[in-house]
Specification:
The structure is a single chain. The chain has helices spanning 3-14, 25-41, 106-127, 149-155, 213-222, 245-252, 258-266, 279-285, 325-339, 364-377, 393-400, 425-443; strands spanning 45-49, 56-60, 69-75, 95-97, 100-102, 133-139, 164-167, 179-184, 186-195, 201-202, 288-296, 306-307, 310-319, 345-354, 357-358, 382-385, 403-406, 422-424. A hairpin with a 6-residue loop joins strand 1 and strand 2. The protein has a six-stranded mixed beta sheet with strand order 1-2-6-3-7-17, with helices on both faces. The protein has twelve helices and 18 strands. The chain is of the alpha+beta class. It binds ligand BES and manganese (II) ion.
Length: 444
C-alpha cells in the first residue's frame, strides 16, 4: 500500500459527517467536497448533486459504448459517535493500532468506499482507463434511510443506465474469509410518546391518583414480545417466508461458529432470541422488533420525586422476505393502541424505512463476484445473508432494474455504530484488490 493512502484515509475520516444531526450539516458538505476533489484528481468526471438534505457525489469515467456499466455505491455519512466516553481515542481523530485504524466510519463506510476509489485510481494509472463504464454514487444519507437517493435515481435514470451495482457496505464472516451476501434485512421505524399530566407533578401530592407515563410505557413495551422471544404483534409473521432446510444446512457448514462469535463479541452472559433458531438464522432470516432508545422523567444526579408528564421510546423493526414495511407499521400501531394502559394517551410518529433484499448468488453476475472475491483473497467466498439494511439496494432493482453484488469488508469485531469502530489495513488493501478484480471480471 502506498504511503499517502493512510493520510488520505485519515483526511476522509476526520470529517464528522454525522447525517442524523443537523449541527454537522456543513461537515457533510465539506466531506462531500473532499470526495469530489479526490475523484476529479484521479480523472473522473465528478459532480456534487445537492438534495433536500445532504449532497450526493456522482463520478463517472468516459462512457465507452459496448462495455458493461457498473454502479459502485457507498456512503460518506456516519452514525453519531456517542457515547463519547467509551472511546479509547477521539472518534474523528483516526489512529493506527496493531494494523487497525480506529475512527467513526473507519469501516462503515469510509474505509470500504475509499478502497474502491483507490482501486479505480490504480487501474487508471496502470492502464490509462477502466475496463468497464463506471458510475460512483456516494451519498450522505444512508444512515438515515436514503430518502433523497431514490428521487436522484429516478431523475437520472437514463444517464445512470447500468448493468449491475457493486456495494461494499456489508461484512466478512471472519478475517480472511471473502464473503458474498445475497440478502439484507429491511428496516422500518416508529417513535411512541406516552402522554400523561400536562406538566411534571409532585409524586407525593399526585402520585397514586394519576397514571405514570413511564410505567405505562414500560407495560406497553413489554407487550411487544412473548417470553420465548417472538414478536407478539398480531399478523407480524404472516408474510414471513419460512427458512428452508437447504439454507440452514448451508449456513451450518460455514467456517464460523455464529453463537460463539456473538457471545464473544458482545460479552453477553447468555444468548437470547426467537426459540427454534440459532444466532445466524435469527439475524439473517427472522424479523425482529427492537427498542433503540427510551426516555422520560428526571435524568440528572440524585433523586427527584416527580411523575413525568410524558415518556417516549424509539422502535425499529427488521424485516425479512416478504414483509412490507408500511403494513408492519400499521400492525404495530394497532398493537400499541390496543395495549395502551389506562390513564394515558399516545402519539405515534413513523420514521424512515427500507425494504429487505434477496438476490441469486449464482446468477452470471453473482458468479463473477465470487470469482473476484476468490482472486482478491485467495479463498472461496462464503455465501451468507445479512441482518443489517441498505435501504437503497431494493431501489436499484426497482428504479434501475439491476441486481446488487454485496461484497463487503466489515469484520464481525469492527464495531460499526459502536465506540472504537475500526478497520484493518489488511481489508483496506483487500478492498483495493477486490475493486480491480470485480471490474476485470465484469468486463468479460
Ligand atoms: N453497513 C450498514 C448495513 C449493514 C451492516 C449491512 C451489517 C450488513 C451488515 C449500513 O451502513 C447501516 O448501518 N444501515 C442502517 C440502515 C438504517 C439506518 C436505515 C442499518 O442497518 O441500521
Ligand atoms: Mn451503518
Amino acid at each position: 500500500m502506498r504511503d499517502n493512502y493512510l493520510e488520505e484515509y485519515y483526511s476522509f475520516l476526520r470529517f464528522p459527517s454525522v447525517s442524523t444531526d443537523d449541527k454537522y450539516k456543513e461537515k457533510l458538505v465539506e466531506c462531500a467536497n473532499w470526495l469530489v476533489n479526490k475523484l476529479t484528481r484521479i480523472g473522473l468526471r465528478t459532480q456534487l448533486v445537492p438534495t433536500k438534505r445532504h449532497p450526493i457525489v456522482w463520478a463517472r469515467n468516459e462512457h465507452r459504448p459496448g462495455r458493461p456499466t457498473v454502479l459502485i455505491y457507498g456512503h460518506y455519512d456516519v452514525q453519531p459517535p456517542d457515547p463519547l466516553d467509551l472511546w479509547d481515542s477521539p472518534p474523528f481523530e483516526p489512529v493506527l493500532k496493531n494494523g487497525y485504524v480506529f475512527a467513526r466510519g473507519a469501516t462503515d463506510n469510509k474505509g470500504q468506499i475509499l478502497s474502491h476509489i483507490l482501486g479505480i485510481q490504480e487501474t487508471i494509472e496502470e492502464h490509462r482507463e477502466l475496463p468497464v463504464n463506471v458510475h460512483l454514487v456516494i451519498e450522505g444519507e444512508e444512515e438515515i434511510g436514503s430518502a433523497n437517493l431514490g428521487p436522484f435515481l429516478n431523475q437520472n435514470r437514463e444517464a445512470l443506465k447500468c448493468d449491475v451495482a457493486v456495494v461494499s457496505d456489508t461484512g466478512m464472516i471472519a478475517r480472511g474469509v471473502p464473503t458474498m451476501s445475497y440478502g439484507l434485512r429491511g428496516v422500518t421505524a416508529l417513535e411512541v410518546k406516552v402522554i400523561g399530566p400536562k406538566m411534571d407533578l409532585h409524586s407525593g401530592v399526585f402520585g397514586g391518583a394519576v397514571a405514570n407515563p413511564i410505567t405505562a410505557l414500560a407495560q406497553l413495551l413489554a407487550t411487544l414480545h412473548d417470553r420465548e422471544g417472538r414478536v407478539a404483534i398480531a399478523g407480524f409473521y404472516d408474510r414471513v417466508t419460512p427458512l428452508e432446510e437447504w439454507e440452514r444446512d448451508a449456513w451450518r457448514k460455514l467456517p464460523v461458529d455464529g453463537d460463539k462469535l456473538i457471545r464473544e463479541e458482545t460479552g453477553v452472559s447468555e444468548l437470547f432470541g426467537e426459540a427454534g433458531y440459532n444466532s445466524a438464522e435469527r439475524i439473517w432470516a427472522r424479523p425482529t422488533a427492537e427498542i433503540n432508545g427510551i426516555g422520560g422523567g428526571y435524568q440528572g444526579q440524585g433523586t427527584k420525586t416527580v411523575i413525568p408528564s410524558h415518556a417516549f421510546a424509539k422502535l425499529t423493526f427488521r424485516l425479512v422476505p416478504e414483509q412490507r414495511g408500511e403494513e408492519i407499521l400499521e400492525l404495530a400501531k394497532t398493537h400499541l393502541e390496543k395495549n395502551l394502559p389506562k390513564g394515558v394517551t399516545m402519539d405515534v410518529t413513523t420514521g424512515h424505512s427500507g425494504p429487505w433484499y434477496l438476490t441469486d448468488p449464482h446468477s452470471a453476475m453473482g458468479e463473477a463476484a465470487q470469482r473476484a472475491l476468490r482472486k482478491a483473497f485467495n479463498r472461496d467466498a462464503a455465501l451468507i445473508r445479512e441482518g443489517g439494511s441498505i435501504p437503497i439496494v431494493s431501489e436499484f432493482r426497482e428504479i434501475l432494474g439491476i441486481e446488487t453484488l454485496l461484497m463487503g469488508l466489515a469484520l464481525p469485531d469492527c464495531r460499526a455504530h459502536s465506540p472504537n469502530e475500526n478497520f484493518p489495513l489488511e481489508n483496506f488493501e483487500g478492498g483495493i484488490r477486490l475493486n480491480k478484480a470485480i471490474m476485470e471480471e465484469l468486463a468479460h
